[in-house]
Amino acid sequence: MNYITYPGIEIPVSMISLGCMRFASLTQDKVEEAVQTALHQGINFFDHADIYGRGECEVKFAKAMKSLKIDRKKIVLQSKCGIRMGWYDSSKAHILSSVDQILKRLDTDYLDIL
Which segments of the chain does DSSP mark as H helices, in order? Predict the structure, then answer.
C-alpha cells in the first residue's frame, strides 16, 4: 500500500484509481453508484482533469461526495490542468487559475496530487 503523508496524517492510497473522465455523460445517480462501488472495492484514489466534461465531471463528483457523506480526509484527489481546447498552456497564470476553478468545482480546499 502506498501512502500520502501530511503533518500528523498518513492516508493510504489505493493502487488503482477511478478515472472520472466520463462522469459528465452519466446521471448523478450513476456517478454516485460508481463512486460508492469504488469505495466498497477499496479504491480511494480518484482521477480528474479540468478538461474532463469541461469541468462537469468534477461538479458531479463533488455532489456525489456530499450525497454519500464521504470524508474528504479518507480519499485521494488528483487533477490535471494545462490543456486548453487544442493547445497546451503551462503558464503560471493558467495553472493557478485552473487550480482555483478545480478546487471550486470539487468543493474542496486542497488536491492531493496535481
Answer: 28-40, 56-68, 92-106
